[in-house]
Specification:
Two copies of one chain form a homodimer.
Chain A (H helix, E strand, L loop, with lengths): L4 H6 L4 H20 L8 H9 L4 H11 L4 E4 L6 H6 L3 E4 L8 H5 L8 H11 L4 H5 L2 E5 L3 H10 L5 E4 L7 H22 L5 H24 L9 H11 L4 H21 L10 E6 L8 H8 L3 E6 L4 H4 L10 H13 L10 H13 L4 E7 L3 H17 L3 E6 L6 H16 L1
Parallel strand pairs in A: 1-2, 1-3, 3-4, 5-6, 5-7, 7-8
Helix pairs in contact in A: 3-12, 7-9, 10-16, 11-12, 11-13, 14-19, 17-18
């Protein structure tokens, strides 16, 4: 990695603390990712991206800012990346996946908050995430109580704009969300000085749609038995989608898919055909939260899908064809976002249907329901998911955890017992 | 208490379990309430109400049902009682305040759920609350993730209707809430067969407004030093407001206020004038959750106000004068409900203003911020409340707890230390 210290200093990072964070990553990454058997060659790009995690991409953002562009931070799939791109700004998913930043957060936030929220907030107050430092402002949303209220406190440290996501799927809820998109458009135009025209938005949506299409292609390649890519690698790709350059990322994923489809044609996989195939469903996993996938795949299973915001909820569905006017495009984007089957909605039975569809279509032997501790919405939905799967005879294991390593042994034991049952 | 066993059996209560629950209450109530010094005579009515907690009032509801009326359960101040009354139905706040029903809930709900939610759900699945059993359906709302998702599961055990409360205070949010009120009106009309006319609604709102006015009068009497009523008794009155007959309750509270105002005029109080005056702010307290008030007043403080849904958020503000049409009345009700400064909103700085106003107007020596464990919204707002009070030199103690008795000793110690500081 090149020397980025002056850039990090300019961004106001706590350099000493940041050194500790960054120092731990290569060994961890090597142990988890590079030791995997028969990895696709196309993963080399993603290895490079992680190697440069706080370097090259941040440099690109800084260059963009130097030439007058804006950078906008976000945490959630409900924030439309295309609207941000249409304003000539770059959307970046913010750091939120490590225990490292949790103690900084706990000096302010309630401890009974999910690790993802604490980690993201801690990155800001501890000044250890170059992405939030580089962002001109952050766009939050109201998809859960924890984030909704965290954004109020985050606003005391960093410019923060919050958009509302409705809670029931009603015509007025759609109207409200559409109005929030219009408000966000105005905010972006004000911050960037760029007018979001129908042409600009169509172009941006096409870029994001191409990215999503590439990710869906990868997702479909995982239907094969044996599966051509590990769950760890597939998860990593989706995680990187949140902050990489959209065009380059799409190219690299497409190249990876060419390779994976070749493997599928040849019947070549990363795990034995008999390896238990697991669907992970639930809360999102931000870089470097690889804990559950690692345990599952270390134990001989292979993860074939993520019904998650770092999975299917990120790349499905597509924006529908529309009349191409600004109003028509915004409505199509709103409809697309509201088809995200997030546990923030009540009821949200479409998510149950998604899990059942994935369980069948991806030839799944068992589902692991993953809830971040203190995430009320997903923890409650686990009850319904388990019931629906039981009717189909698909076993479910509920895992509720945080970012610490303390419960790794316990989770391993539970996973081993689960896989033992699944194998029979 | 008369023999209500056949009524309880008819309601499908688990009689054995219910006996244990009801058996514990009199001794507990006597120890906490009847041992207080110099209680207002007007509290005798409320003692009677608690003595008949699952008896006489439930009998009234059953008589109402026998004559063709409906009973509607609710949990939250956002559900408009007047709309329910206007349909000839009786609104009742449901049981939700005891550890007794928590284990039943934990067989289904995530353990990391607040005690209020677990208690209410446990009362249904354990069949120990005659109010929910008597209710024709329950009206839930989306004011927090925990309740929002609990209602989905509750719907598997009892008819449940959920209305959305917006999260940002925007014109579209108001429109959405108004539409939810219209939907609720239609639902009530469908369930009761009664058409809610402008006349019926005006009459019902007048009843509820008179109740709120009486509670505001009581609240204002607590400004006096010495204070004419204990915090325990005042809290009890608001708790009873949720399920008692609206007309009788209003009369009894008004009579109590006559007495309290006489006390104030004579400079007579329930505690020495020098007793530390405490405002309790935060999560609601349902019957029989008297834990914090009891500890505070046992320790020599007196609670002079509750900035809470079982306090000011229940009885302020008033419904504004309007044109008297159905549409005008509904809009005024929506505006009133949306002026409830609940932590479900983002931002919700009006609540901070309320706390500051109460701290000054009620001559408060310290504020105890009460969060039910795992209640993200209030736990987060505590950070802002504490900061705002610190600027005014008002000390704050944060208490986060559940319904168990296990932490009583620890809370006592913290309260004692806090009062020691407040007294200086």
């Amino acid at each position: 990695m090149a020397d980025y210290r002056s850039m990090w200093a300019e961004l106001g990072l706590d350099l000493e603390k940041h050194d500790i964070l960054l120092g731990a990553l290569p060994g961890m990454y090597e142990g988890i990712f590079l030791t995997q058997d028969n990895r696709p060659e196309g993963m080399a790009y993603f290895d490079f991206v992680i190697g440069e995690i706080h370097g090259l991409r941040v440099k690109e953002l800084m260059d963009h800012k130097a030439s007058g562009g804006k950078v906008v931070g976000l945490f959630c799939v409900f924030v439309p990346e295309d609207l941000i791109l249409a304003a000539g700004a770059i959307p970046v998913g913010l750091c939120a996946g490590t225990q490292f930043s949790v103690p900084d957060a706990e000096e302010v936030l309630p401890r009974n908050t999910c690790a993802l929220i604490k980690s993201s907030f801690g990155f800001k107050v501890g000044r250890t995430c170059p992405y939030v430092q580089a962002s001109d402002f952050v766009i939050g949303e109201t998809t859960c109580d924890g984030k909704k209220k965290m954004y109020e406190l985050l606003g005391q440290y960093h410019p923060t704009y919050v958009m509302e996501v409705p809670q029931k799927k009603t015509p007025l809820g759609r109207e409200l969300f559409l109005e929030e998109l219009r408000g966000l458009k105005a905010k972006l135009e004000e911050e960037t000085g760029v007018t979001i025209t129908a042409e600009r938005l169509a172009e941006a949506t096409a870029l994001v749609e191409a990215k999503r299409a590439a990710l869906r292609r990868l997702h479909n390649a995982r239907r094969a038995r044996p599966v051509p890519i590990s769950g760890l690698d597939a998860l990593l790709v989706t995680q990187v989608a949140f902050y990489d350059d959209v065009v380059r990322f799409t190219e690299k994923v497409s190249a990876l898919c060419d390779e994976l489809e070749g493997r599928v044609a040849r019947g070549e996989g990363v795990a034995p055909a008999a390896a238990p195939r697991i669907l992970v469903s639930g809360s999102p996993m931000a870089v470097p939260n690889w804990k559950l996938h690692r345990i599952l795949e270390d134990s001989g299973a292979v993860v074939v899908g993520e019904e998650s915001c770092t999975g299917t909820r990120y790349f499905t569905p597509a924006v529908a064809k529309n009349d191409g006017t600004l109003a028509g495009q915004l409505a199509a984007i709103a409809d697309r976002q509201l088809e995200t089957h997030c546990a923030c909605f009540t009821p949200n039975d479409e998510r149950i249907d998604d899990v059942l569809t994935l369980a069948e279509g991806w030839d799944v032997d068992g589902v692991v329901h993953y809830s971040l501790q203190f995430c009320h919405t997903f923890a409650n939905e686990a009850v319904k998911v388990e019931k629906a799967l039981a009717i189909r005879g698909v076993p479910l294991l509920r895992i509720e955890t945080d970012y610490s390593d303390e419960d790794m042994g316990q989770i391993r034991n539970r996973v081993d017992a689960f896989l033992e049952m699944v194998r029979r």
